[in-house]
Fold this sequence. Notes:
This protein is of the alpha/beta class. It has three domains: 7-27 and 239-380, Nitrogenase molybdenum iron protein domain (Rossmann fold), CATH 3.40.50; 48-228, Nitrogenase molybdenum iron protein domain (Rossmann fold, 3-Layer(aba) Sandwich), CATH 3.40.50; 400-431, no CATH class. It is 45% helix and 16% strand. The protein has a six-stranded parallel β-sheet with strand order 1-10-9-8-11-12, sandwiched between helices. A four-stranded parallel β-sheet has the order 6-5-4-7, with helices on both faces. Strands 2-3-13 form a three-stranded antiparallel β-sheet. Strand 2 and strand 3 form a beta hairpin. The protein is globular.
Amino acid sequence: MPSLKLEILDYADAQTSILRNRWPNVKKIDREVTEKAKIIVDDVVKRGDAALLDYTEKFDGVKLPANRINVEKDDIEKAYRKVGKEQVSAIKFIKKRVEKFQKKILKRLVFEYEANGIRIRSCTSPIRRLGCYVPGGAASYPSSLVMTVTPAKVAGVSEVAVFSPPRTMGEINPLILVAADICCVDEIYRVGGAQAIAAMAYGTQTIRPVDKIVGPGNKFVVAAKMLVSKDLPIDIPAGSSEIVVLADESADTQIVALDLVSQSEHMDGVAVLVTTSKKVAESVRTELQKAIEKVPNRELVSRNLVKNSFIIICKTIEEAIDFINKYAPEHLEIFSADGWKIAGQIDSAGLVLVGRYSPVAASDYCFGTVHVLPTEGFSHVYSGLSVLDFVKRFNVIECSRQGLSEIRKPLTAMANAEGLLNHALAVEGRFKGE
């Protein structure tokens, strides 16, 4: 295995060489990809199911009969026979963890507030129909189905339709089907790629359109989602997986290296070390070299570490925090005795994990948080996916006569200032004759 020559930068160099490619200056989706995705989307809008079948044969190598676009109950029963009990148990465990935390979030959205004769109730209602894209090729993650569908079901979404590309024999990964069943998915379709996004957005003879689209995918899926977003909402921008580790001299550099490696086994994964210690930087680089000589997926890990990873040495912890907030990573791990204090100064990250026993790998599955998070600096303006993405929030208000009387004067003054005279009259009319 060739020597790892991870680039080591100082804080000043990182400001220009790294941050210039982050939000809001991220590179736009390739124009050629967008044009190809648009051709597919327009064709599905025009020809419906026939286009889906043609693209499934072209891109997935599967010639589906027209009546096999959707997955039937017996397909799910067969899937259970192809997976192990431990895998089924793991899916149920992850679902339960996510469910509990999402219910806590939802509960806090519903409350009442009373002051000076005005009673306000904060309410939620779910969106009605969700489309969830689940990759089914080389990157096939049943856990992502659990992470996207479970918050929707907690929110009360009544119809969840899952779309995943078929494999060579025309079947979807059995673990995806089992996860869909455990999570109470309502419809499953053997459709992938940009054509699946078009079917979700605009419908076909077999598929009814959805109200919102979520889920990760390749560059054509992402391009298609951006194209249809003018007509219906999509989830957060999500690109290649990212980890930033902030480590001071107290850090176990072997553990740091293992976490950097774990995220580097994602396609185009990005792994970054930010430290205030040159000794830690050199030690982590040495541990990475040791690790990639024996870890699984070593070719992919090595390629990503060489191509997408770097180390930044800062003079102070304040410099390190400043860089991280500007970089706005998907995942941030903090190895420091002052971990919670540092976490309190982070304002842009998809997820912050503090301490030796809080690895990103665990957050990907079992902590109860959702692993669909903003990448490429978008945590400056986006949050990770949660139950909040599947509900609409609204208020119910009741005001007493006394309460309206107390706000009558400033209300009338503002309405008159804005030239909305009938607004003022609508209030004054309630006190006519007084």
